[in-house]
Write a structure and sequence with these properties.
binds fe (ii) ion, 2 domains, minor pseudopilin epsh fold, Helix Hairpins
Length: 243
C-alpha cells in the first residue's frame, strides 16, 4: 500500500525514522503477531464513530454543514461499520485501528480491511486537523520546525496545496515528521503515513466527497479555503511534541 505514498518535499534526507504516534504492534500480517498484539493489550472493543470535535456548522463557509454532515455521518460511519463487519469472528477483532492498518498494509488478502481501517483512522485524524475559522497563528514550537524545513509557513502551505491539488484521483495530503524534519506527502485512496512509520501532524482529505457539494470540481478552491481558514495548528503541534 505504501507505493501509493508520494513524497512532495525531499528536504529531509538521511534522517532516522520516528516512532509512530500510536500502537506498538509490529507490522506483519501473521496470526501470531495479531495474537501478540491482543496479549500486549493493544485492543479495543467495537469501533465507534468518533464525534466531531466541533458543531457541524462551525466550518462554514469553507466547508458547509451539508458537506460535513454527509462526510462524517455517512462516509466516515460507513468505514467504521465496515471495519466492525470485517473483523467480526476473526483474529483482527478487538484490535485498534492503528494495529489493523499496520497488520494489513502489506497483505493483499486483507485489502478491504486495510482500506476501511485506514479510512476510519484518516477521517478521525482529519476532523482534528481542522478547527473553526481562526487567526491561523502557528505555535512557536511548530513554526520553528516549519521554518527549518520549508522556509516559512506560506511555503509549507504552497507545498501542501500542490500535494493536495495534484494528487490524481482520491487521496490525502499530509504534513509529517520524519526524524527531525518535516515533510509533505500525498497518499492515494486510503493509504496513510502510518504504513511508513512516519508521524502525521495534520492532513487534508482530497476525496471528492470532501468538497464536491460545495466546490464541484474546484478542488484547488477547497484546499485554499482549508489552508487559509481551518487548519488546526495546535493539533499539529500536539502531534509534533508527541502529546
Ligand atoms: Fe473523506
Amino acid at each position: 500500500m505504501s507505493s501509493g505514498t508520494r513524497e512532495i518535499s525531499s528536504k529531509s534526507t538521511k534522517s532516522r525514522q520516528t516512532a509512530p504516534p500510536v500502537s506498538s504492534a509490529k507490522a506483519s500480517a501473521t496470526n501470531n503477531s495479531s495474537q501478540e498484539a491482543i496479549k500486549s493489550g493493544s485492543v479495543a472493543s467495537a469501533h465507534l464513530l468518533p464525534q466531531l470535535p466541533y458543531p457541524e456548522n462551525s466550518l462554514e463557509p469553507a466547508v458547509s454543514v451539508k458537506t460535513l454532515a454527509l462526510h462524517h455521518g455517512k462516509h466516515h460511519r460507513a468505514y467504521v461499520d465496515n471495519v466492525n463487519k470485517l473483523v467480526t469472528g476473526t483474529l483482527f477483532a478487538g484490535l485498534l485501528l492503528e494495529t489493523l492498518i499496520r497488520e494489513t498494509a502489506s497483505a493483499p488478502e486483507h485489502t478491504q480491511l486495510f482500506n476501511n481501517a485506514a479510512q476510519a483512522w484518516n477521517h478521525a485524524f482529519y476532523w482534528r486537523s481542522l478547527r473553526p475559522p481562526s487567526d491561523g497563528i502557528v505555535p512557536p514550537a511548530l513554526k520553528v520546525r516549519i521554518d527549518a524545513s520549508f522556509g516559512s509557513v506560506d511555503a509549507l502551505k504552497r507545498e501542501l496545496a500542490a500535494a493536495a491539488t495534484t494528487q490524481f484521483g482520491s487521496g490525502w495530503a499530509w504534513l509529517v515528521m520524519h526524524g527531525s524534519r518535516l515533510r509533505v506527502l500525498a497518499t492515494s485512496n486510503a493509504d496513510s503515513p502510518l504504513t511508513r512509520d512516519l508521524r502525521p501532524l495534520l492532513t487534508i482529505d482530497v476525496w471528492e466527497h470532501a468538497y464536491y457539494l460545495d466546490y464541484q470540481n474546484r478542488r484547488a478552491d477547497y484546499v485554499s479555503a482549508v489552508l487559509d481558514k481551518l487548519i488546526n495548528w495546535d493539533f499539529a503541534t500536539e502531534n509534533l511534541l508527541g502529546s
